[in-house]
Design a protein that fits this description.
about 110 residues, mainly alpha
Amino acid sequence: MTIHMEEEVMGLFLVCAGLVWLGKAALGSACLRRRGRLDGAWFAHLGCELLSLYFLCRVLFQGRSPLFPAGGGILSIDNSVNIGLFGVFWAAGCLALVYVLRGRAASPEGNG
């Protein structure tokens, strides 16, 4: 059984996820810069989140776009690897965000 995906699904997902990511990056960077807490952990969080979304898209849209080519091997193995990498980068991004928020809460100017 094949589930057909409408043509607009991939474009809408990529545009909306990209807009949310850009908004989060801009708003978070502005807030952290104002507090003087803009550091590498924030950029690590953003980078890990972007990589995790890439691997998620490889699972969802594999072979439907040149951005997400089919692996050429066994599809279930490719999907397992992509899902695993999605989880690793998502977890790393969450840890970086916790580090940023913990540092902000520990600083004297972070509670005001």
